[in-house]
Design goal:
5-stranded mixed sheet, alpha+beta, 3 helices
């Protein structure tokens, strides 16, 4: 017996919404891999919109700001790697919980990146970073 597919308008809308959320998460994952892990601006730029607003005070707005930032990473931290531990999507926003290590062997930082997408492209970025301490007052991981 074949399962009946629910074709009610609200079901279709929910399905479309879920597909958009999954597509937005995939865009951010691909952007992260290309830009942060591979430090390749040309590959990463395919995932950003015509406007790119940066809320990190250390990075200039626009694609050129991102290009300069990735150039610094490539020069100063060639072995930098970021591991996305969790990723969430809500509407046009994607939130990534990340373990970033600039130099292999270091503890690194716990990072939360927030991306806003429009038409499947990243148009805004916020982040917060917290260095991972040597000791903790609790037995819980930051991830």
């Amino acid at each position: 017996m074949k399962a009946k597919i629910d074709e009610r308008p609200e079901t279709n809308k929910r399905r479309e919404t879920n597909e958009k959320l999954e597509a937005n998460k995939k865009t951010v994952l691909a952007f992260y891999e290309a830009g942060i892990n591979n430090k390749n601006f040309d590959a990463a730029s395919k995932f950003i919109g015509k406007r790119y607003v940066q809320h990190d005070p250390g990075i200039a707005d626009g694609p050129e700001g991102l290009k300069a930032f990735l150039g610094v990473f490539r020069a100063q931290f060639p072995n930098l790697h970021a591991d996305i531990k969790q990723i969430f999507a809500d509407g046009d926003f994607v939130i990534a919980h990340v373990h970033g290590v600039r130099v292999p062997g270091e503890r690194g930082s716990a990072i939360v990146d927030i991306f806003k997408l429009e038409d499947g492209k990243i148009v805004e970025h916020w982040d917060v970073r917290q260095p991972i301490p040597e000791t903790s007052a609790n037995p819980n991981s930051m991830f």
